[in-house]
Amino acid sequence: MVTISVDGILTTTGYTQEDYTMLGSDDFFYVGGSPSTADLPGSPVSNNFMGCLKEVVYKNNDVRLELSRLAKQGDPKMKIHGVVAFKCENVATLDPITFETPESFISLPKWNAKKTGSISFDFRTTEPNGLILFSHGKPRHQKDAKHPQMVKVDFFAIEMLDGHLYLLLDMGSGTIKIKALQKKVNDGEWYHVDFQRDGRSGTISVNTLRTPYTAPGESEILDLDDDLYLGGLPENKAGLVFPTEVWTALLNYGYVGCIRDLFIDGQSKDIRQMAEIQSTAGVKPSCSRETAKPCLSNPCKNNGVCRDGWNRYVCDCSGTGYLGRSCEREATILSYDGSMFMKIQLPVVMHTEAEDVSLRFRSQRAYGILMATTSRESADTLRLELDAGRVKLTVNLDCIRINCNSSKGPETLFAGYNLNDNEWHTVRVVRRGKSLKLMVDDQQAMTGQMAGDHTRLEFHNIETGIITERRYLSSVPSNFIGHLQSLTFNGMAYIDLCKNGDIDYCELNARFGFRNIIADPVTFKTKASYVALATLQAYTSMHLFFQFKTTSLDGLILYNSGDGNDFIVVELVKGYLHYVFDLGNGANLIKGSSNKPLNDNQWHNVMISRDTNNLHTVKIDTKITTQSTAGARNLDLKSDLYIGGVAKEMYKSLPKLVHAKEGFQGCLASVDLNGRLPDLISDALFCNGQIERGCEVALMKADLQGPSTTCQEDSCANQGVCLQQWDGFSCDCSMTSFSGPLCNDREESTALLRE
Question: What does pTM read for this prediction?
Fold first, then answer.
């Protein structure tokens, strides 16, 4: 039987197991701690004692040893380790520290814990995410790895994700990831964490609730070669290797909150003093929790969304078009015209299992690549694109290459609707292993679960506008025409980093700033000019977009005939746009809405769409017209697609609702045929008449495009009215007493006065 009493009061009684009755004293008797306290069997305590002991006596039937007196007298049987003062003093407390920002951290000496080791500490926070401890060993390449660049390291980490505490450990034979406690631990209370390890096995305890673990494989050596980082990681991460399993490191989630009483292998660490020595910014030598909620003062500007953190506010600026701690700095805009891109060529190949991606876009095109990660050596990709006016997320983890036999192919999610409305939209992607979430603006999130156990995404590049790494693509998405802003990937705002020169691995020809986009303009110089392209593919649905500029009142812009009576026509009639079609139930006419005729020598944007429910939409600049049709739903087109007009003899056989008797004279640009961006000259099956690239420059002003001769105040004499034509102007002299091309020829009076 064993009894324990405190201050003469019996506290507890227990019994030894089995027939054990003798306590041997042949080896050592430790007071105040031991060389390896964390490894004592059955003990949840890993720290040596700090404080005062008095009259320490050991006695049995035959022996009485006054241990504290013998140690003070220097008895040869006694050995003293560390600093022991033989008087009771106030022991210096291990002051807590606060990591005030995600960028703050402390660097501790290398942890030499090859076979055994222990770490304990207390923490307190209200923040859901943060890397608390991390260290790794020397990089090594897997001998039989399918991918020669896949570097493995021994590592140790403790992190917080979504309020839960995780232990991560890899000794070379595989990673273990243990949730230390089922409840969340970001409630602002103090929690005591105790990690103990002996070879492949050990425990992680939170407030004495212990979770055991056993590492896979045969390795029992944890070979750490780098510093032990507390609270986060340095800004310059050169030389650091981040295992894909440590999500907070790759997501750039630093810890914000308090830490105290850090012990490593039973030895206390004065982290306050270390922070002072390292002159660490953002580390405060105390811990207090402010009672006022920081978000009550509305610190986030420009409609940023505020979240209360640990003694700080956190602004989500992703939906604002602004950056900065308080969403106070306007984010840079990139303009893309279909031939432009921005490509981030990362210094090292990346492998991730978790990503946070957000961006803002504005486009009138229903199709186009927004952003994609690409690899030079695999089909791995995380891709965002516009697809029929919706945002499409594709995540493909190339299982075939590494022979993991668990992938069913790319995972896809769709969100949003009619997003090609030339308004700003915000897209957010969150991936955590096999879990996917896609959000557009404030709409409900779309979620998905990836098949199989393979979760590692490999990429060398982050691309926008155009995908240039095409080797492993089965189909190439359309190039993007529009504007991008606030592209953030795992905490890195890449557009602004590129513009400011903060990173040197950007390649781009997209243009900074918001610019009106006129892509691939072509001039049809006469009404007899036209091109023929391959048949328009619009059987079940359709998204067409183009820009035009003209001074002509009438003209055929687009025509494609089909089986039976099926056809589609877009034309100008007296300056207004007509969309005419027949799906098999008879011809229909939809007139586009505009306040005035469109032959005003200004660029106009036209979007024409038909969905699978036969809802037809015509949008001219900002004005929208819709109409639903019943009956047949398929547009079965055959023969060539004519742009700008048709052969002269074809006009008389055009359907009855079509007014055109001649072709379109003016400029066309940014032509998008269901996501296909044709080059009207290079892709033409044949061309007729005078067709030139560009849109003719009019006056001396370089950015004014249009006819070579334009109406001026004095173009027509004697108050004649100037009529603008595409290739010049004419004068209406009917309300004057003059005639001639410029109303400067005096007419002879021919009127007779009769009684």
Answer: 0.78
